[in-house]
Amino acid sequence: MSLVTFIVPTIGRPELKRAIDSLSAQRDDDWEAVVVFDQNKTVALDSLHDERYWTLTTSKGSAGETRNVGLDWHRSNGRSEWVAFLDDDDVLTPHYVEHLREHADDYPWADVIVFRMDTPHLGIVPPTTGQIMHGTVGISFALKAEIANGYRFVAERRESLKDLLNEDWDLISRLVKDGKQIFISPHIDYIVRDWRSYE
User: Fold this and answer.
1) How sure is the predictor about 44, in pLDDT bands with cuts at 50, 70 and 90?
2) Which pLDDT score, from 0 to 100, does residue 167 have?
3) Radius of gyration of the chain (CA)
4) What's the fold here for domain 2-194?
5) Is 60 helix (H, G, I), strand (E, B) or coil?
6) What is the mean pLDDT of the chain?
7) Domain boundaries along the sequence of the chain
């Protein structure tokens, strides 16, 4: 059993290699990943031959539905305690899994752990106030596996950053409405489009 399964939806962007490299650079290597190629736009990466990776293809055409394919795979095949997400043009800091483990141990009541993310358009979200509001949560969260197995993303085609934030917000707001417990990490462990370097 792994600590966390990362779901990586992709349309075969060249940046996928950078995202996968950020997984391989994790200081805590207790993870697995399912890479879901959408529209059959696959790319060959040597690192995907690591036994921790599974690859799937779909023709769904939206980020939400492609993530759902990964969630469905996890429901049937996953062997992890947590499920997290990494978009193919983003990166994780080397501490993501390490910090997830620390938070899971320190806050066992948490159903969702939201990491702060650095974005070129919005800056660092959520803010240090610890409030989750519309527009302040992206895909930088991890869900306990039993929670992840009961939820799905809105499966509409999204065209803009605002739409993508709405998609992530929709899932988080349903979790809050259903009384799930959320812990907001003080750590910035998710970088949108790798626009800054964090070590």
Assistant:
1) low
2) 78
3) 15
4) Spore Coat Polysaccharide Biosynthesis Protein SpsA; Chain A (3.90.550)
5) coil
6) 86
7) 2-194
